Amino acid sequence: MKTRFFSLMVVALIAISNSFAASNMGKPEFVAAFSEANKLMEEKFWDQAAKEWKSVLAMDPENINVNYKLGYCLLQTETNKIDALKYLEKATSAKLKTNYDPFDPNEKGAPVEALYYLAIAQHLNMRFDNSTESLETMKEQVSKNHRLSNQINRAIETNNEAKKQVASPKKYKIKNAGSILNSPFSDFGPVLTFDESSIFFTSRRLRPDSTNANIRDFETDKFRDDIYVSFKGRDGQWVQPELLNLNSDDHDATISVSPDGNTLFIYQDSLGDGQVKFSTLIGETWSAPVKLGSDINTKYWETHCTISSNGNELYFVSDRPNGNGKRDIYRCIKNADGTWGKSENLGDVINTTYDEDAPFLSPDGKFLYFASKGHATMGGFDLFVSKKDGSGNWGAPENMGYPLNTVDDDVFFQPMADGKRAFYSSRRDGGAGDLDIYEVEMPEVKGEQLATLKGTFKPIKDKALPQGLKVIVTNSKSGEKQEAPGNSESGEFLAVIKPCSMYQIDYSDGVEIVKSEALTIPCEDEKYEYTREIQLVSKEIAKVDEIKFDKENPIQTKIEEDKSYAEYSHFFLYGKSNFSTDEKEFKDFIALCRQVIDQKAFVTITIEGSASTVPTTGAKSNETLSAERSNNAKAALKNVLLKSGYMENVDFKFGEPVNVVQGKKYENDAMTNRAEYEKYQYIKVKVQ
Fold this sequence. Notes:
Number of strands: 34
Number of domains: 4
């Protein structure tokens, strides 16, 4: 009796509940909220629409249609996709409708398409078999021409790929980058300098001065993207991030950074017209961002770029027409004049009919990392890697595997110099906020260790550094060139060089080469670092009083330290034809040379050989005699300097030799005008 009474009460309560729900559906507040939520959906303001549907659902928790709408909106958000499952399970618990009306507040059911979105939610919750089952059920209920038919088949493929990847995880070691970099907000897009001394990243955190407190994204109601930088302290730990001065009130995001950290590539977006720009570090201030040239930026959407370590190749992303899919990866090659050539699509080996994004080149230029919704993805964007072959073509991309890739979007991945580590951003359990920055160790990957040439241009005393400082690295075998700019404020430079080759290194002040050297990088898998200090010198030739002919002192040396000048002069008196490196005067001159070289770091040596017009019997001609004198002096001086530890084209270089025949016309008066002819028989060596 009690059991029957209880059953009757349950039936009555359900009837009352349904009656209450039905009455709520007709109420003006329900209709108004339903219409507002629908409007937000049409405008694709997914976060706000989901919030509004939750308020509608509170009025009628059992409403199948509202559960469907809420689940659908959550799937479109960046951060709440996984929460869609319970609402879509509710939406598909009743019979699905083929005559579904999405705009009718009195609609109580869900469309058959709800099965597809349920399958997506199940996939995001790693219930792959359930997801495939939902997709197969939907295929039975719709025609082959249904608008979602291709997407259903693609979703089944991603379920199969996800099962395979999860069953065979890679040996990645993934660790959170820590609370200094990561905040309770989204932190993503990490890019690092080659030496890992600086990390730039994008954050949606509240600024330290709260100037963005009222600047929010209308669609998500979250703070807009800002760019921060953190430097590595002496203890090897990251210090508190700083907000860059180039941020605007719109979206500003990191893309990539040059190896030396002096050029930052960023994405800026104000009206959905994403642009790829660059900013240069001048002292401690970043210049106003400037759009990249050539046809890189268009009226379409450009989202990302990466530049090779030698500065000669640029890869970027655009959704311009006539590509393989919506977003494709393109490449530009630098012209001889330093401008970018016209872009070319990388083709269907890399690009698919789906989206590609966020390319990153490995420092050695052999691997291209990028994100794709195509290829063999396990869901959303996955990270892929392609290897360049001997002909310079990119090979078939490989999925980088689980757990680096997940069932959701995995996009930004920057490899480090050794190729065995990387930084990227992801949503993972235990993170500090929504998106966090992570460091990845890849023990199964064999990377190529590159060398670095870094140092500083030192200014002329009491003068500022000139614009246009650069280091030019030329492969002695292939002739391939790369340039590394010098910071016009600090003078610092950094060039990344591949091992197992010989290079010509030229240091330029922007007008001419001020110093050169030959550098051989060994083939061993070690980290080679070369440090240089390049002292700039005045181009104004100091006025000095040269040594005059003195018959009593035919061999003389002098130095003027304040003018960084040294001179050696050897006049050949009659009966004297050679000089010796053992002479006291020559040894004194070598000591003076060392002083000048050590003071200026780099000097030019000019040698002048002279003969008079008196005929010579020891040489073919007087011209030959003057050349022999300068060549002998050069060989002797070079030999002594090399033995002293100095290097040609690193510490000193020889200027063009001066070989002359001069003096009064010979008139068979060699003896009577001896003093006159002896003035023009000499070697002069000048160092400055």
